[in-house]
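Following up on my earlier thread - several people asked me to post the actual chain instead of describing it. Fair enough. Here it is, all 139 residues.
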Amino acid sequence: MGASSRFKVFAKFIRSNFPNAKLVADIAGGSGLLSYELEAYGITGVVIDPTSKDTRRKVRRGLRRSEVSAGDTTRIRRIHELVENVDLSDYDLLVGLHPDEATETIIKSAVQYAKPFAVIPCCVMPSTRGKMSEEAWTN
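Reply from S.P.:
Thanks for posting it. Predicted structure:
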């Protein structure tokens, strides 16, 4: 699967498996491509990612350029914070596609807020830096 198609495939998975999700926290969402793909299904994705101001500007410029050239004026909402500093109570679903070090935080936040979640990690880096049981992940 190509790098760009993974966003489309995950968005379709989210729509199929979480049909009642209308507001989705796209945690460690980087450029916002997953949130952009979710919009096609009528789902509002909000990127929660603490990237630097320069990186945000560059990503936003590149994404806007491609959106405008395609005739799309969709705006992706972004919260530039660590997910631990964001109130997730209003979201219907927490997601992470290749969220790197945020994988554990997504799962723990989902448990804390009693929210469904979907994570496709590339790697899992628990804060304990060791193996973790299922109980440890959810406590």
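Residues 33 and 66 are 11 Å apart (CA to CA). That should answer part of your original question.
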